[in-house]
Amino acid sequence: MQEPMLRLNGVNENLRIIIETELKGADSPQKVKNAVIEIFPEFPFENDLEEPVLGKACNVTWRGEQVSLAKYLKLLHDQRILDTALDAMTVNFDGVKTQFSLLRQAAIVGKVAFPLPNEQPLGGIISITLQGEHLSDWLEAATWHKGRDIAPRSIKDEHTMGEDGEAVTWL
User: Fold this and answer.
1) Closest CA to 76 of 129, 35, 39
2) What does the alpha-carbon distance between residue 137 and residue 133 come to, in Å, rounded to a whole number?
3) Domains of the chain: which residue ranges?
4) What is the pTM for the complete model shown?
5) How far is CA 109 from each of CA 36, 57, 73, rounded to the nearest angstrom?
């Protein structure tokens, strides 16, 4: 009998997790909330905001700490984007901390998509900061798949995607 796959969630795994999203201008709080909940269903919303109207724009940042990453990681597996996720999640990795973003437009339909570096996407972003002493091990475990038995990957290896988001061709 095959053992069930280990499911990580970041919480109680010696990681500090911060998830933030900024509402500006005409951003609909309800639509942004729906997008965040699609990826992070345990995100703590303190109160509902009124929809923006002419002369009364949104300008608030929602922040949650120690929010489970379980659904986010499941979506990475379901969408089969684990290598892309490893690359995107570690572009800003410094050994103990990383910060990356997700597109809110994709999140609202339950999909994970990463913006290109320095991109300001229409619809906004969800920012994730992860910090921990053994973060590199955790990131590699969280994005592991059987294909890595044949073609091993590691953080910032020679197969990391290019800065333009294009895949590096394996020889």
Assistant:
1) 39
2) 9
3) 16-149
4) 0.84
5) 10, 25, 16
Span 13-22, mean pLDDT?
95
The identity of residue 141, as a single letter, is: A
Long-range contacts at 62-66 (CB < 8 A, ≥ 24 apart): 62/20, 62/21, 62/22, 62/23, 62/32, 62/36, 63/18, 63/19, 63/20, 64/18, 64/19, 64/20, 64/40, 65/16, 65/17, 65/18, 65/19, 66/11, 66/16, 66/17
Mean pLDDT, the chain, whole residue set: 85
CATH topology of domain 16-149: 50s Ribosomal Protein L5; Chain: A, (3.30.1440)
Would the pLDDT of 162 be above 50?
Answer: yes
State the pLDDT at residue 170. Answer: 45
Phi-psi group of 7: left, alpha or beta (phi > 0 → left; psi -120 to 50 → alpha; rest → beta): beta
